Amino acid sequence: MAGLATVFGSGAMTNSIQEIEDNDLIFVIGSNTKENHPIVALRMIKAVRRGARLIVADPRKVPLVRFAHLWLQQKPGTDVALLNSMMHVIVKEELYDREFIVERTEGFNREFLDNLEEYTPEVGEKITGVSKDKIIEAARLYATAERAGIYYTMGITQHSHGSDNVFSIANLALMCGNLGKESSGVNPLRGQNNVQGSTDMGCIPDSYPGYQKVNLPAVKEKFEHLWGVKLSEKPGLTAPEMIFEAEAGNVRAMYIMGENPVLSDPDVNHTVKILKELDFLVVQDIFMTETAELAHVVLPAASFAEKDGTFTNTERRVQRIRKAIDPPGRARDDAWIIMELSKTMGYEMKYSHISEVFNEIGMAWPAVAGISYSRLERGGIQWPCPTSDHPGTPYLFKGGFPRGRGRFTTVRFRPSMEPPDEEYPFVLTTGRQLFQYHTGTMTRRVDPINKVAPEPYVEIHPDDALRMDIQDGEMVRVSSRRGSIRLKAMVVKRPEPGVVFIPFHFKEAAANVLTDGHALDPLCKIPELKVCAVRIEKDRA
Amino acid sequence: MNTLMIDGKYIEVPEGTTILEAARRAGIYIPTLCDDPRLEPYGACRLCLVQVKGMPRPVTSCTTPATDGMEVQTSNEQIERIRKTIVELLLSDHPNDCMVCEKAGDCTLQELAYFYNLRENRFWGERRQYTRKDANPFIERDMEKCVLCGKCVRVCEEVQGVAAIDIAYRGFQAKVCPPFERDLDCEFCGQCVSVCPTGALIGKQSLGKGRQKDIKRVDTVCPYCGCGCNITLHVSRNEVIRVTSEPDTLNEGWLCVKGRFGFRFVNSPDRLKTPLIRRNGRFEEATWTEALGYIASNLKRIKKQYGADAIAGLSSARCTNEENYLFQKFMRAVIGTNNVDHCARY
User: For A336-369, how does the pLDDT look when each residue is reduced to its tens digit (9 = 90+)?
Assistant: First the structure.
């Protein structure tokens, strides 16, 4: 998100899910949409049935490839080279949108073009493994479409050059004028029900709600006035930095609400060690997670079905959730817990109904000021929605970019931090599968789901399996420089030779035992969960 | 635009609209079993027959385009006789076990039988006999209740893009099954369950959990990925027993396996039910007052000794906007630090 915010001035999906139907070109890169955003994929399939072209760029033969006109199987971590190469073709063949570039962007200059000059389709082919003909075809398809939408997820962002990947996507869209109109834009699909909302609400270390920077004096004053206390102007620590600072002894206590970093963060063994050493750890969750097991105090929270409130989905749509049942035992909803704790600490948060919290958010952030619970009774509303008679905003940047002009960024291809070598010859990429969800806290407690997706596995290409004499279903050991796990081999042509895939849902063989917690993107500090080097051996245990 | 007259009412509709769609737009009811506005017209059940002036015999309104000047009659003695006969024929090859059927109260076939007041049946004879298939962990299939409307087949192919099933064989032997009646290659989205007009396809987890009339329905949003699908929780005795979605929502009523079938974690016996404090290496149950007091004193102690920035908070992409707002407000206003983040902000 930091990437998009830098070049456009706002980091969110630019378009709505419904607009996908009217795309005439859909470019999906680094997103296993059919498994991870199944209902977004249905819109894509609908568009394809109506005649839209679909390009899928993914190192694995993900299910959406079945519907694609063109599949680009780039090597993991080579997206910048692929995109630069496509742009090289677009510039060479003058397929870019001259008018849009002149009127609405900046940075389409000599430096930018010189950099692209190097990335000929031949160079692209060499780095990415995608044939130059396919690169040229993809470039032409994208550039000549009327309403082209790009869709991506963590396959783009979870890299040590994740921001560069996002910049490259933005460059491509800006170059072809595919922004600021219906059914064409840049669309990061959010992987959890309220990622958009928790970011919007200021659960990020450098911003108050609504992306208002903590180090701007005027902003700080505004919130000091609203909350009636003195506030800190020092930007805080990002999640990975919290772990590093805890290791250094600078962070002594953590309060974790509804997250399971032990399984979701890279390098499990390291995370466990650091959390164990904290002076004080509070975990608030609905289950005894792997993280909660390390806590000094565990607080029982309510599930989504047991509380009122709002979620904001991937297309910026604020929607009501409603209480259907009572929480079990003494469990209480998170809002109640925070308010009570706050009161115990001597700061009273007074709200007679949860809707009053939402009204306060509207006071803090004008983009949702026009949204109220009574309006939400009639359906969700997409922000920005500044006034109570504003209908909401299905697509962004109609009149221009929040930062003025959209910015081109010169991006050079940088390889991933840990390339395969003799000792660790495979590239491991991680992700989710259709049936299980995230760290499995919820889905692994649903019996029928466990019947169809019972256990961890590693996808290996048949050529590699044959070479190592590994049979489908056989137990293997996968090791990296961080650790080692034991799981079943799934011999399948989904990844290419040399690449293996492990879903990260399963604690008994947690993929994040293997990933590297120190390979971070310099701008937004996201860990490189999509590429690390591993070794695979037949399990002799 | 075309203007046609249905039951004496003038209706203007765009080119390509079917008679059935035009009638619905005008609030005129035509019974159907096989139609779904989200699927391509099919014309299997023949219940939607109407009389068009100038045509020799009734036509299926779901597959006949409305044309300019068309005059349509949706009901007359002949049409009603045909419809009633169709329902009777369907019921003659149906278990008619409504008293134990999960679908009772939400079943199109049952509604039609009620509408046509079918107490007795003129037809009897051989009935299809199938053993209930049990290997599927999500979906209970009772093929004796199948009316061969083809909705499940079409939704799987047209919407889901999977085509796991089709109608095989002909005539009395016709049935819905996977290719060659072999293994089912299925994403278990349950779209088929959601469109089935009878009790042929039922979500297994709701079996025996409560009758339709006792169920409270609560509209909310799916807790899984970021699509934000609108779901309806079916609640019986403080337990979520089923999840459905309405066709007029942003997800058009479609859900995935997690959204439709992944709700049982809510009522899992593993749920945390009381605050726990670690004492001597073991978790002990505590009251809220004890737990919150213990947290407050420890956070105050650490803040005093090391400063506010020695405390960090991780919020959650699973929690509501309001909870996230309060969490960062707590970290910033009460603790006094900007050390607040969540794992999925990128």
Answer: 999 999 999 999 998 999 999 999 999 999 999 9
Q: What is the pLDDT of residues A220-249, one digit of tens each?
A: 999 999 999 999 999 999 998 999 999 999
**Between B158, B296, B326, which is nearest A335 by CB?**
B326
What is the set of domains in chain B, with CATH numbers? 2-75 (3.10.20.740), 209-271 (2.20.25.90), 307-341 (no CATH)
Chain A from 408 to 447: CB within 8 A of any B CB: 434-435, 437, 441-443, 445-447
Contact A285 B272 (CB under 8 A): yes
For A267-320, what is each residue's pLDDT tens digit? 888 999 999 999 999 999 999 999 999 999 999 999 999 999 999 999 999 999
Residues of B in contact with A307 (CB under 8 A): 320
A215 in reach of chain B (CB within 8 A): no
Give the start-to-end residue ranges of the domains of chain A.
2-189, 195-382, 426-538
Chain A residues closer than 8 Å to B229 by CB:
39
- If you average pLDDT over residues A38-43, what whole number do you get? 96
A335 in reach of chain B (CB within 8 A): yes
Convert chain B into a string of H (helix), E (strand) and C (coil).
CEEEEECCEEEEECCCCEHHHHHHHCCCCCCCCCCCCCCCCCCCCCCCEEEECCCCCCEECCCCECCCCCEEECCCHHHHHHHHHHHHHHHHCCCCCCCCCCCCCCCHHHHHHHHCCCCCCCCCCCCCCCCCECCCCCEEECHHHCCCCCHHHHHHHHHCCCCCCEEECCHHHCEEECHHHCCCCCCCCCHHHHHCCCCCEEEHHHCCCCCHHHCEEEEEECCCCCCCCEEEEEEECCEEEEEECCCCCCCCCCCCHHHHHCCHHHHCCCCCCCCEEEECCEEEECCHHHHHHHHHHHHHHHHHHHCHHHEEEECCCCCCHHHHHHHHHHHHHHHCCCCEECCCCC
| B213 band by pLDDT with thresholds 50, 70 and 90 | confident
Check for a shared fold between A195-382 and A426-538. no
CB–CB of B328 and A208 under 8 A? yes
Q: Does A376 touch chain B (CB under 8 A)?
A: no
Considering only CB atoms, B264 lies closest to which of A49, A307, A446, namely: A446
Q: Chain B residue with minimal CA distance to A444?
A: B265
Summarize pLDDT for A419-459 with one digit per residue, the tens: 999 999 999 999 888 888 888 888 888 888 888 888 999 99
